[in-house]
Automatic annotation (TrEMBL):
Keywords: Aminotransferase, Pyridoxal phosphate, Transferase
Family assignment from sequence similarity: Belongs to the class-I pyridoxal-phosphate-dependent aminotransferase family.
Organism of this sequence: Favolaschia claudopus
Record PANTHER family: ASPARTATE AMINOTRANSFERASE
Protein name, entry field: Aspartate aminotransferase
UniProt record, GO biological process: amino acid metabolic process
MF GO annotations: pyridoxal phosphate binding; transaminase activity
Length: 487
């Protein structure tokens, strides 16, 4: 239970005194240099959520709060789900979501943006579409995906993708799950920080033995390809899993680094790349608008190179509600994914697949891509400027995605860690994502204060500009007044 005098208990606007005094009270009430999660209420709230308890070296006895049915174990929620649940505990509801500013959402705005093609407003429902679709997806959509990748990334190459290299899946997580389900007992390399759902995937599919690599902010979270090759030799890695562009840091593997990473897929290691933000690349010159990134550009033989690409309509087409995504890879992989899909998810929505075909026309894609890059770059620059004006420059500004990885270490404690800052913002109807969710830690053994992501939050500039400004007013006020108390 929250202590009645806890700084997390009383909403900011309900505290007595001037804004500066109210913020000073927060800091003075909890001015502790916490060293362990047991000392922090925000961290205890997190640990008490189902699936987030520390995992011991031996299997736990049945926990009545988590295992309501014998043998059932909570896998833990992704960051967005946990934060949404905490927001609802603080009064958030989807029916009245306009009253809140959600800077934590992992989705782009879905409405009209300047110079983009009109948003789809209806879909046809032919009688055949009322039947189940194949678990690999509708053939015409698979062909459209293959043709788009060949047109965008493989012009002039002898080896071309066909529909046999494409599997349609009901969302990116379904794609990851299908891939994980067909992987054998192997060492699987992943990086910290990275996409939160990898934690649950690596925890749930027990045949994947997770092997972490900590990315260094001093090198802008760059994946060291030479070190990766050494790790393959010394640790026996057979799978490398990564998002590219990377969520949450907004960095991207490109050029020779991406070419060298793809080359590893010809040497006995499978590379699984989550490319959902492949259009969110922010050019510095006018001629670079409309270009995107994909490992498909460096694949030599589409049926021999062990490169697995996961992408879809969710982010790039700004259609997360459609749940139409795809996995691209060698033919024998697609056959295996069809089999795993038959017992995991049963396949993607049939009418939506048919409606998606026209959206993959290269001319349509070109218009969507250019409009998206201009609009989201403007939003990125707007948020970065507001943070800069408050003397909280982002250490490593994003060159891709729609996320800002913000370091809070310059704030006074206890506001200098992501979980506490997140809980305080909830009182002001603003949502961000604490950085610890991107510390992929399948065993959950690490003290949260030891996490390399502990002092970070992820701010999304996916929402419309007016929502961004509403949330930034709260974030910046907290940062500005909290920082001033350090002196």
């Amino acid at each position: 239970m929250t202590h009645p005098h806890s700084p997390l208990h009383t909403p900011f606007h309900s505290r007595p005194g001037t804004p500066i005094q109210r913020f000073k009270d927060i800091v003075l009430d909890a001015m502790k240099h916490y060293k362990h999660e047991h000392e922090s209420e925000a961290h205890q709230i997190f640990r008490q959520a189902a699936g987030h308890t520390v995992k011991a070296a031996l299997p736990q006895t049945i926990n009545p709060d988590e295992e309501t049915v014998p043998g059932i174990e909570h896998p833990g929620s992704t960051g967005v789900i946990y934060c949404s649940d905490r927001a609802m505990a603080n009064g958030f509801s989807y029916a009245a979501s306009h009253e809140w500013s959600n800077l934590g959402q992992g989705a782009p705005e879905v409405g009209e943006i300047p110079n983009a093609p009109p948003r789809p407003t209806s879909i046809p429902l032919p009688t055949d579409s009322l039947e189940y679709a194949p678990t690999t997806g509708v053939k015409a959509l698979r062909e459209a995906v293959a043709n788009l990748y060949n047109h965008t990334y493989r012009q002039g190459k002898e080896s071309q993708y066909t529909f046999e290299n494409v599997c349609i899946v009901p969302g990116g997580r379904a794609g990851l799950s299908r891939v994980a389900a067909v992987i054998g007992d192997v060492y699987t390399s992943y990086q910290v920080p990275d996409y939160t759902a990898y934690d649950q995937m690596l925890s749930s599919f027990k045949r994947l033995v997770p092997v972490p690599t900590a990315l260094d902010p001093k090198t802008k979270y760059r994946l060291d390809i030479a070190q990766t090759k050494k790790d393959i030799q010394t640790q026996g890695l057979q799978i490398i899993l990564a998002s590219n562009p990377r969520n949450p840091t907004g960095q991207v593997i490109r050029g020779n680094d991406l070419k060298d990473l793809v080359a590893i897929g010809r040497e006995g290691t499978t590379i699984v790349l989550d490319e959902f933000y492949s259009w969110y690349i922010y050019p510095e010159t006018e001629q670079d608008y409309g270009h995107s990134i994909s490992s498909a550009a460096y694949v030599e033989d589409v049926n021999q190179d062990s490169i697995v690409i996961i992408d879809g309509l969710t982010k790039n087409w700004r259609l997360p509600g459609w749940r139409i995504c795809w996995v691209i890879g060698p033919r024998n992989l697609i056959t295996a994914l069809s089999q795993s899909g038959s017992f995991l998810d049963g396949g993607a929505n049939h009418p939506m697949q048919l409606a998606a075909i026209q959206l993959l026309d290269p001319a349509h894609v070109k218009a969507e891509k250019e409009a998206l890059q201009r609009h989201f770059k403007a939003k990125r620059d707007h948020v970065l400027k507001r943070l800069h004006n408050m003397h909280l420059d982002v250490d490593i500004p994003p060159t891709s995605t729609f996320y800002i990885w913000l370091n809070l270490e310059r704030l006074p404690p206890p506001l200098n860690n992501g979980l506490t800052f997140f809980e305080e913002l909830l009182k002001e109807q603003t949502i961000v994502i604490p950085g610890i969710f991107f510390d992929i830690n399948p065993s959950h053994r690490r003290n949260l204060f030891s996490s390399p992501c502990h002092h970070f939050i992820r701010i999304s500039f996916g929402p419309p500009m007016e929502d961004l400004d509403k949330g930034m007013k709260i974030v910046i006020f907290c940062v500005d007044n909290g920082g001033s108390l350090m002196h």
